[in-house]
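Office hours follow-up: a student asked to see two folded examples consecutively, so here they are.
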Amino acid sequence: MLRTRFLHVLAVMIVMSMLIPATIFANEQSELASITQERTAAEQDSSKLSSMNPSASQEWALVDRTAEQMYRKIVEGDANGAFEILVQLEKALAAPHLFDEWKAEHIHVLTDSYVQLKKQFHAAKRDDDALEHAVARFRFATDTITHPDQPMWLQYADILRNDMDQMLQAVDSMQWKETSLKWLEHMDRILPAASLQRSANTIEMIQSVVALIQQSHQSKVSIEQVKRTLQDYEGMWMKELFGASKDLTTFSVNNEEPLPLRAIIWLTCIVTVTLAYVAYQKYRDDEEQIRSGPWNPSS
């Protein structure tokens, strides 16, 4: 009985994964006009929002210089010197015009990366690698604010592609974990900066990919299934993150094409169905073990 219900649920999920994209296609067409209007309005405001007022610009320049000095100290192995600069950075971040005309989600991205940085400095047992990673995340974010046309985080495109190639070529679970952890580290390093310049849909897709890879480390989904998903969708999300849309980027306004809703739903459905299938296989194996156990009189 339980098995039959589970199969029914799984069948419904698979059917929905095929039907939902088709049903929303008409809605996407009707939304194109409103999207165009929104983009036009955004372009009209971009000159005002992408250029900060002189006071804020000077304040962010100071924050960026201070963050760069801190990162150099960390790279040189002078954690104590970097900690002294942290005091200067905290004062710079308290400037009165720093967050003028900022969106709430952008404020959250930057403050969260700063909080993570402070946690590493104040950790009971300091981890040098984790500290360098946290400082680099914040440094990329401040650079994105002061150099929105040529931010440093875009240089990670080739690095992430190489990481992905190594992941797809992994021959065993140990090699997969080693290469995928490297990819996760590099992606996490640039994610705050990317969040300041890319749409919420693009960032959500990247986070879905991150979650899928992390689930493979917990054996919740097979490595081969993750590889197939990455091969199918890598080109799409890499283009959204590093592709032609980067030329349209300004700091405060997202002028890029919105990620197709069908693509997001397809990826979500693939992850959901994959996890459901894995859960069913585990349930079937457990049931088989119970039936064949010594406590079963018929075994």
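And the second, which I mentioned at the end of office hours:
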Amino acid sequence: MAAHSKVFSYEVDGLSYTVTIYEKDGEFLADIDVLEGSMDVNAVYFGDDDQSGKSASLDGPLNMNGARLGGDKVQWDDAIELSQPGLGPDADEKETYLSAGDTLTMSLDISSLDKIDVFGVRATSTTTEAGSIKGVSDNPEEPEEPEEPEEPKDPDEPTYDKVFFNAMPSGDENTAVDAYILAEEQEDSDWFMPSLPEGTEPTFENFLDYYLSLDDLNGDVTELESIVFFDIDEEGGITELFRLDAPEDGFADVDAVMQAYDDALDETETSEDEAASLVSALTLGEAMEMGAEAYLLAEADAAEDDAGEDIFDMA
């Protein structure tokens, strides 16, 4: 069923059904679903909420004469004949004879769902007291379109407190300069050290962009020998996390630096997984050893008890 639709409901003692109007592949369709009881759907009627003008009607037993909506006569815009009343001996084979769980689908000659605000069903052989209905339904439900699933979020990029860019001097006046760059400006420090602009996420990409943007550093990735990443604890203690060494012929460009960085992160994650597996294996091994020791101690105690009983018996 299409995402946008209208659903009409009808319920009386012994019979209930829904009518779902929707568009599919450029065609407007109606599904009549019987929820309880059974009926032979002989004709359907529909119209908008404008009740002026001449009403459509079918002759004979297919008419909707006398059908009311809130006490008022209904003006129908169109009517469709589906079958003549009467089941005969082959009722189960009649397409318009529906029981609970059955669905009848038909095409509607409309240009928009807005053209239908009232829906009528003329049915005979119904499981109602009267044996037939001229069912009229309005106030259709309009199911909300399902929300599009959110795009999966990328894992958070690692952040750092300080990054050191170690440059290889080329000897000319425009040579790149070594530089430590902080994530946040350091207060009460005797040494000036550049820091990322306020509010900048301290990811490596932002550190690298900032290093290359500083004119007085002459930042050039092709002259970098290594890049070192640091963590700073609450007491100011500095820990080197890992370093990124340039290949023998240096980094070709920024993309090469970022690729080397991503590869280093992958290796770090792999090492952490292997370490976790090793710890788990060691823990299991220790548990098994402890279990074996406990078993041997229990066996030794049992042997001592048996020996004591033998001596007592000999006495």
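Two things to take away from it. Residues 309-315 have pLDDT under 50 and may be disordered. The radius of gyration is 41 Å.
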